[in-house]
Amino acid sequence: MGIDMSYEQRGYHDIGGNPCHAGPVSNETAVPPGWAHLTDALRNALGDRYRLHEQRRKIEELGEDVYDSVTYYEIRVIALLEMAVERGFLTREEVKTRMAEITEGSS
Description:
- The chain is mostly helical and 107 residues long.
- It has a domain at 33-106: Cyclin A, domain 1 (Orthogonal Bundle).
- Helix content is 50%, strand content 0%.
- The protein is built from five helices and no strands.
- The radius of gyration is 17 Å and the shape is globular.
């Protein structure tokens, strides 16, 4: 026996069965961006330092505006970053510095 919850009671990320939010599901095969596999590799590299429930919590904390404006893999990257900062693996400044280095190198 499941819990019957209205759409209003669910989190913004829980859109299953809600025809008003997501619209019809496409039958076309989605091709992930070239970097997408790196999100899974990073998660796997974290090994015992990574917990699925932490990533799920970080995804739920994104906020509806962010959640609705980014892709599946971008959501996971943001959640991994937030978890890594929270756990002290790296700082936001380190990420910003590295992103600037990468951007400069590609121009």
